[in-house]
Amino acid sequence: MTKYWGLAELKMSPLLEDRAAVSGELDQQEPNSGEFSTMAHDITKLKQAGAAFYASEARFRNVFEKAILGIAIANTAGTLLEANESMAQLLGFARQELIGMNIGMFTHPDDLVVENVYLREIQSGERDDYRMNKRYLTKQDSLIWVDLLVTAVPESNGDGIELIGLVVDITERLRFDAELRIAAIAFESHEGMILTDANAVILKVNKAFIRATGYSVDEAVGQTPKFLQSGRHSEAFYLEMKDTLHRTGGWQGEVWNRHKSGDVGPQWLTISTVFADDGAVTHYIGRHQDISERKKAEERIEELAFFDPLTGLPNRALLLDRLRQWKRTSGRSDRFCALLLIDLDNFRTLNDTLGHEVGDLLLKHVGLRLKACVRELDTTARLGGDEFVVILASLGTDEHDAAKCTEEIAGSILSALNQPYELNGVTHHSTASIGAILFKGTSIPVDDLMKQADLSMYKAKASGRNAFRFFDSAMEVAANERASLESDLRQALLEKQFLLHYQAQIVGNSRLLGAEVLVRWQHPRRGLVPPNDFIPFAEETGLILPLGLWVLETACQQLAKWATQPEMEHLTLAVNVSVRQFSQPDFVNQVITLLTTTGANPQRLKLELTESLLAHNVEGIIEKMFVLKAKGICFSLDDFGTGYSSLSYLKRMPLDQLKIDQSFVRDVLIDPNDAAIAKTIVALAQSLGLAVIAEGVETAAQRDFLANVGCHTYQGYFYSRPIPLEEFERFAQQSFLALCLTLI
Ligand code: C2E
Ligand code: MG
Ligand code: MG
Q1: Mean pLDDT over residues 182-195, rounded?
Q2: What DSSP string runs through 462-503?
Q3: 695 lines ligand 1 (CB under 6 A)
Q4: Which of 207, 408, 681, 695 would suit a FRET pair with 238, their CA atoms being 20 to 30 Å apart?
Q5: 641: Cβ below 6 Å to ligand 1?
């Protein structure tokens, strides 16, 4: 059925009341959707209203002129014949300008293509009307969107048809629609959103909220957000939130809400207030961001920064922090605390022999055992390596009692750490050394406390390990002495205060084989210092490296000099090499370089190593020995019998000589055990095809005993003490002479 659109029901027209006069039935019409829904009715009804309406020319004119929507009359070619004031305003032209203009002159080209199709269809009678949203370009070149309804009506003065166009500006409405769409999309973000009214009654929640809380829309809408509360926050917390919201219009912060399942988790809540134009609150919008992952990450970062990843115990940073805290607390409460430094004995050997994995396992066990020995209040930390620290807190106001209590706990720690460990199926025994210091208040700096605990721990180690020692000030004196010894030693190296003494090595009754060089320190104040007073310390501090190199170099220079003297050129020199020195990665190169630079004959050089060398990296040590051996250098195993040598290693090392330690030689005539050991060593050397030398031979009887069991090379006061070079050279010349005489 053909429909015509009439103007009688334009809702904004002042003439609307007249509508009933046109047709009493019109009001019962179902409104159509859209802008024109209440304005248009079936055109057939209009037709029926008939000529009476059209006859009323003046009334029509009024409607036309005063309508607030644009009305234009055009011919079927789209040329405007009439336009009302609203239409003119819409397009920004004067009404007179519009008359005669074609719609193509202000229609957006894209829309014109569509509209031309409609126009052609009207011309051909295929349709009577069309409606479209389209864009106009105003005289001022701005683009506006309009809802256009065009109806073909009989020409007022002719047989043809003309077009009546009704135009509503919908630019604002479209913009508003777009904003609404954006708002709807924004509300459906991945974060949980709540919209409440001014009384905080929930009107709307989004899908993310449903996912995050487990509640359905129906369960949430109508409630206030209180139903999410976890009970973790105080009344004051919510009052502060409300207050801030009222004062500033917004609030944000961390809240712990409850999931429907009962789980409680942290969220970052942002609440914004929506105000009406008059300033009244209309709504609240709540945005919930799940921060549980972020929280976990923060906790992990804290863990990494303050906890040892292997044992999970507090690390050095946290320990120092706790120590500072306890110093302050103990000062206020007047109660003593104790700092215990615990170091595992021989941990390095375990690491080297069974590997780091097993070492790590032991450290974990130690951490657990330590924690089990102390109270919740105390701190157990790992400083690094095999060093642990315990802070015993609040030990009471009496120093004596506090010390007793510390001693008891240290004792229980020692026995706990002494229990065997099961490490990857291997049973391992370990002990520890503990140093401790009591403290109260802030007078002693943290660093000093740590140093003092360290000193006492070393004292415990020195006492034979598996022991506990309290700090006393005598230790500090000793430590200070050590510190001055270190600086003295450094100075001595710079100022070349060292010298070598030579101790003869004899074969048979009197034939001089060579000498062992023994270092001495010509101290400017202390006089001649024996090596036992500084070598162990030089080893500890690493100063043995430059010192050992100097000894080796001096010995090589001496060998090179002797090579030109007939009475000396056959002599060998034995040089003591410390474990630390031999373990240096470039030790082999250093020796080879020294031989080259000094021109010493490698076959005259003998290196004395000790059995402790075999405690670490046996393969590497043996490899180095072979390289040096290939150059012609000999090896003697010093102090043999005092350490622990595995027979299998002995067999694999390219040794030349075993040196029976002087402790066996000393009592060889009176102690049957020492005699048996000396005999066994000689037998062992023979079975391994090695030479044997006895050191510390002081008497002819000792020499005779040794000769009887098969040891024919000796070193000791019986022949010569270690003596300065000139003296030794005289000694060598005499023995050379004596040898010549026996040959004559
Ligand atoms: P060592 O290598 O076992 O040297 C033997 C020590 O025994 C020397 O003590 C020597 O004087 C002493 N001695 C020799 N014959 C007798 C004797 O008949 N009776 C007694 N009671 N003692 C005797 P010294 O010179 O005090 O050296 C002690 C240790 O210092 C040496 O033991 C060696 O381990 C170390 N040492 C000495 N010089 C050096 C060096 O240049 N480098 C390294 N790394 N260590 C050195
Ligand atoms: Mg020696
Ligand atoms: Mg020795």
Answers
A1: 85
A2: HTTSS-EEE--HHHHHHHHHHHHHHHHHHHHHHHT-EEEEEE
A3: yes
A4: 207
A5: no
pLDDT value at position 475? 61
**Atom 2, ligand 1: residue with shortest CA distance:** 576
The string over 275-294, giving b where at least 16 C-beta atoms fall within 10 Å of a residue's C-beta and e elsewhere, is eeeeeebebbbbbbbbbeee
Ion ligand 2: residues, CB < 5 A: 576, 608, 638
Looking at ligand 1, which atom is closest to the CA of residue 722?
11
- Report pTM: 0.48
Ligand 1 pocket, mutate which of 549, 573, 576, 635 (most atoms under 8 A from CB): 576
Which residue type, as a one-letter code, is found at position 252?
Q
Pairwise CA distance, residues 455 & 452, whole Å:
5
pLDDT in tens, 475-526: 666 666 776 788 889 999 999 999 999 999 999 888 999 999 999 999 988 8
Residue owning tokens 């709504």 = 283
Alpha-carbon distance of 604 to 621, in angstroms, equals 21
Angle between helices 672-688 and 700-709 (to 10 degrees): 50
User: Which of 319, 452, 439, 495 shows the shortest CA–CA distance to 390?
Assistant: 319
- Our measurement of the distance from residue 211's CA atom to the centroid of its chain's CA atoms, rounded to an integer in Å, reads 33
Task: Give the DSSP per-residue string, 320-364.
Answer: HHHHHHHHHHHHHHT--EEEEEEEETTHHHHHHHH-HHHHHHHHH
Q: Is 610 in the pocket of ligand 1 (CB under 6 A)?
A: no
pLDDT at 480: 64
Query: How far is the C-alpha of 648 from the C-alpha of 436, rounded, in Å?
Result: 42
3-state helix, strand, coil in the chain (%, to 5): 45, 25, 30
pLDDT of residue 30: 37
Q: Residue 653 corresponds to which tokens in the numbers above?
A: 């090392």
HSE value, Cβ hemisphere, 13 Å, CA-based, for 592: 11
CA atoms within 13 Å, Cβ hemisphere of 509:
3
Measured between alpha carbons, how far apart are the two ends of the chain, in Å? 155
Number of neighbouring beta carbons within 10 Å of residue 87: 24
Task: Give the pLDDT confidence of 298-328 residue by residue, as tens digits.
Answer: 888 877 789 999 999 999 999 999 999 999 9
518 alpha carbon – ligand 1 mean position (Å)? 6
727-733 contacts at long range (C-beta below 8 A, 24 or more positions apart): 728/501, 728/502, 728/504, 728/515, 729/568, 731/504, 731/512, 732/504, 732/512, 732/567, 732/568, 732/571, 733/567, 733/568
Question: Which percentage of the chain shows pLDDT scores above 70?
Answer: 91
* Residue type at position 407: E
| Distance of CA 591 from the midpoint of ligand 2 (Å) | 18
**CB–CB of 664/682 below 8 Å?**
no
pLDDT of 73 higher than 50: yes
